[in-house]
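[audit] Reproducing an earlier prediction to check determinism. Same input, same settings, fresh worker. If the tokens differ from the archived copy the diff job will pick it up downstream; this log only records the rerun itself.
[audit] input (340 residues):
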Amino acid sequence: MPTIEDVAKACGMAKSTVSRVINNSQGNVSARTREHVMKVVREMNFQPSAMAQGLSKQRSNMIGIVTRNANHLLTDGYYGSVINGIADAAAAANQVVALYQGVIWKDEAKTQLTLVNGWCDGFLILMANQDAALSSALLAHGIPFLYVNSGDLVDGIMSIDIDNADAGYKMTRHLIEHGHRRIACIHTGVDQFSIERRDGYKRALQEAGIECDERLVVTAFYKPEISGYERAQELLRNTSLGITAIFAATDVLATDAVYGAKDMGFHVPDDISVVGINDTAEALRCNPPLTTLSQSVEELGVNAVNVLLDRIARPTQPSRHITWPTRLVERETVAPPKNR
């Protein structure tokens, strides 16, 4: 494999001149010289060292992904898809990706020191809620970062996310347009994005003149005893509630609700309609396939990388919140209520 010294010798030029051309550095290099060097580079199939290029620009060419998730992150329907998009975009931009998750958060102060040690040029932070202490540490060290799907809008902090309140509103409105008025809501109760989606649900009811029955608003997590499966069965078991539809804040909660209803003998969507948000793999694997709100999750990961790299290249640009677009995906879990 040819080295930069080989390229310089073939060009009949100093190594420093060839280096300036390859790294596109500022310097007194004529267009003719640049053209000649790049011609030799192509002919010799020279591949510059990513590490050397990074050092020349005082960059590591490494971006970090930070999450508190301690479980099988890559198999998670949402985060796994986001990380796939991040990995693809990073590879296309000749960036290395480092993953910081789970066990590092046993000592948060140590974690913050780890993340500001200079190994990464910037970070994509995948957390349901923003971490003020981590944000402060990164800001203090001048390290660019971007929150992805945090649900929070904090002044001076870069973030990219859908409009979560609008997402909850749209999916609830979809059920209302199909004639449903007794609509339950299953959300996590602790994650900012989920709370905002619940608020959107309430706004849609209010706008339609439907009183919000707080007995229909329940919280669930991803544990068997308090999952969407269990919560859906609790709601359906109480026949006095008269629910005909369920809005769930995520596809995981929604698919759990579908199977909880089916295992009680209910037919989806004839007996009970269910919708979710995200359009992850769970939505397609659901039986029947889930009606949901797509946010093109892998594309979100790609866009997040591009935004972060732009931030790294132009660190003085103003911080901003990017609202990621969504679209309704109608599948097979929504039908008009029987008593309509």
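[audit] rerun output stored. Observation attached for the diff report: The chain is about 45% helix and 15% strand.
[audit] end
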